[in-house]
Design goal:
Layout lengths: L10 H9 L24 H5 L3 E9 L6 H20 L4 H14 L19 E7 L5 E7 L5 H13 L12 E3 H10 L7 H4 L2 H22 L1 H11 L2 H4 L10 E6 L5 E7 L20 E4 L8 E8 L1 H7 L1 H8 L5 H14 L12 E10 L12 E9 L3 E8 L6 E6 L11 E9 L5
Parallel strand pairs: 3-4
Antiparallel strand pairs: 1-5, 1-11, 2-3, 2-6, 5-6, 7-8, 8-9, 9-10, 10-13, 11-12
Helix pairs in contact: 3-4, 4-5, 12-13
């Protein structure tokens, strides 16, 4: 990796600067930084392993009643990734393991438990990006596959093999029945949509369908509508809006060689039109990963969540990756979320802009560049959201267990107009760890 200004020699100063940060006027910014290095009883082989994972169970609304379940799935996803890192796997394999665990949880809007569309079917989006090769794989509006991220990963892997017969370019993004057929022909087993639906997703679909039918009935009854508008204002005040889970899931990883990878998966908006593809499948919108190179001081990885249309129109994942090449990652992310997202001219007509990101950047520690200590890395990780809450989990290969947190906007803050930003910093693989 390219050496950067943030090295082992300046690590204490980095921590001090982060602890003294006070945020920005006009922006909700409860900053909390903490290192992740912990004393543990893992084996000597595992102790030599280096790597870090940060996951999210979505930016949206996470009720207190389900907080335990959201945190638990984040812990399991982190553990799955770290297990792969300790076994010597690279970032791409580790991030896939984390996403598979997140998709399998019935509490997340990805894979099992995804939102149902207007037709009562489940259509999923997912993408994955390898920071080393810069290869990318994605699927959109995919039905009948339990883990969409596995199809995205296979697309990426197949593309790395080179051209197809007769010089054809291999696909990196497939949708609908074409994506499903491709998955099946490449050995990924089918899973009926009814097995991916849960009691919660089915009840939400029935509830939302009743709301739609009532709203449509009111809109066709012109005289009744006119009287109601006189007394109540609008149809949206008569009929409660459709609840829509925005909790797309994602993960970002750095491995022992400093390679980064990112992935994201989503069931999409509730009651979406069949065939709709959200940000989780779009290049530069759902996730981004790019290793350090001559023109980039830091390796960076990003995964997003929120309203897909808002994230697509701002290409938020790539914007955040570029922004945190600045010296002060926290300030750079803060400004990106404010200027490139909430204040984006591409979303000028929106009353509220809903989304969240997790961001990781790393560089080799400057004092540990001898051949015996090539694994020494300084990792900074952040999350930010404009939604009411965002659930995250993180863990290094040195840690005995993952840490989890549900970040929330403070009382009085308006979702879609304010943001929260938090994070941490840690050094991995140094001789004195």
């Amino acid at each position: 990796m390219t050496d950067g200004p943030r090295c082992a020699r300046c690590f204490p100063q980095v921590m001090e600067k982060l602890r003294n940060s006070t945020g920005c006027t006009g922006i909700v910014c409860p900053l909390q930084y903490s290192g992740t290095m912990q004393n543990s009883t893992i084996s000597s082989r595992e102790h030599r392993a280096v790597g870090f994972v940060l996951v999210h169970a979505g930016a949206g609304y996470h009720s207190e009643s389900k907080a335990k379940e959201y945190k638990h799935v984040c812990k399991r996803a982190c553990q799955k990734a770290v297990d792969r890192l300790r076994a010597g796997a690279m970032a791409l394999e580790a991030v896939t393991a984390a996403l598979t665990e997140l998709e399998d949880s019935p509490f997340t809007n990805a894979g099992t438990g995804s939102n149902l569309n207007l037709s009562g079917d489940i259509e999923c989006d997912a993408s994955i990006m390898d920071g080393k090769s810069l290869e990318y794989g994605a699927v959109g509006a995919l039905s009948g596959i339990k883990n969409p991220v596995l199809v995205a990963r296979r697309l990426l892997s197949e593309a790395q093999k080179g051209k197809l017969s007769a010089g054809r370019i291999p696909p990196c993004f497939l949708v609908g029945t074409g994506a499903q057929q491709w998955a099946l022909t490449h050995g990924i087993p089918p899973c009926p949509s009814e097995k991916m639906a849960t009691k919660f997703s089915l009840s939400a679909y029935k509830r939302n369908k009743r709301k739609m039918e009532l709203a449509e009935k009111i809109e066709t009854e012109h005289h009744f509508l006119k009287r109601q508008r006189t007394s109540s204002g609008t149809v949206s005040e008569i009929v409660e809006p459709i609840s829509s889970s925005l909790d797309t899931v994602g993960a970002i990883v750095v491995d022992q060689e400093g390679n980064v990878a990112a992935a994201v998966s989503s069931g999409g908006l509730a009651m979406k039109h069949p065939g709709r593809v959200g940000q989780a499948a779009h290049y530069g919108c759902g996730c981004w990963a790019e290793n350090a190179h001559d023109a980039r001081t830091y390796a960076t990885a990003v995964s997003t969540s929120g309203c897909g249309e808002h994230l697509i129109r701002t290409m938020l994942a790539r914007e955040c990756s570029t922004a945190v090449q600045a010296e002060d990652a926290h300030q750079a992310l803060l400004e990106a979320m404010q200027n490139k997202f909430i204040g984006s001219r591409f979303l000028a007509s929106e009353d509220g802009v809903l989304g969240g990101v997790i961001v990781l950047r790393c560089c080799k520690c400057g004092d540990d560049q001898s051949s015996e200590n090539l694994q020494a890395l300084l990792v900074e990780f952040l999350w930010s959201h404009t939604t009411e809450s965002m659930c995250v989990g993180y863990m290094s290969a040195h840690d005995s267990k993952a840490k989890t947190h549900i970040s929330r906007l403070p009382p009085g803050a308006v979702a879609g107009q304010s943001l929260a930003i938090e994070g941490g910093v840690c050094r991995l693989g140094a001789t004195n760890d």
